[in-house]
Specification:
With 128 residues, the protein is mainly α. It has six helices and two strands, in the order E-E-H-H-H-H-H-H. The chain has two domains: 49 residues, no CATH class; 78 residues, Hemocyanin, N-terminal domain. The longest helix has 19 residues. The N and C termini lie far apart (64 Å).
Length: 128
C-alpha cells in the first residue's frame, strides 16, 4: 500500500517467507498450524492441513483429469517447481504409468500397455 511522506510515495510489499520460494522445503498445506506460526505462513497458505499422502492423492487425481500428455507434463513441471517433495511422492507412487509423460525422450521402460509393440524391437538376448 503506498504511503505518502512529504511528496514522495513509497511502496511496501509483504515479504514472502523463504520456505515458500524453496521447492525443497515448501510442503504446501502439509505445514502444521504450529509450523505455520513459527515460519510466518499463517494466511499465506490455505487454511486446511493435509498430510503428504492426502496431497499426493489429490495431485494424482488432478493429473489424471488432464486431457493430454502435454497438459500432464506441464502440471508435473509446475508441481516440481513449487513442491519437490510432493512431486517425487506422486511419481514414486505412480512411476510406471508416468515414465513417458514426465520424461519425454528419456523413457527406458515402456508402459505395460505398449510392451507387446516394443517386444519385437528388442534383441532376443534382451527380451524380458
Amino acid at each position: 500500500m503506498p504511503e505518502e511522506d512529504e511528496g514522495t510515495v513509497t511502496e511496501h510489499t509483504a515479504r514472502i517467507p523463504d520456505v515458500l520460494d524453496d521447492p525443497l522445503r515448501n510442503r504446501g498445506v502439509a505445514f502444521t498450524q504450529a509450523e505455520r506460526g513459527a515460519l510466518g505462513l499463517t494466511g499465506r497458505v490455505p487454511a486446511a492441513v493435509m498430510t503428504l499422502e492426502e496431497q499426493a492423492r489429490r495431485a494424482w487425481a488432478q493429473l489424471q483429469g488432464l486431457p493430454t500428455d502435454l497438459a500432464k507434463n506441464d502440471y508435473l513441471e509446475q508441481l516440481h517447481d513449487r513442491n519437490e517433495v510432493l512431486y517425487y511422492k506422486v511419481l514414486g507412487d505412480h512411476l510406471a504409468s508416468q515414465v513417458d509423460v514426465s520424461a519425454p525422450g528419456a523413457a527406458l521402460v515402456p508402459p505395460v500397455s505398449n510392451l507387446r509393440a516394443v517386444r519385437p524391437l528388442v534383441r532376443p538376448s534382451e527380451r524380458p
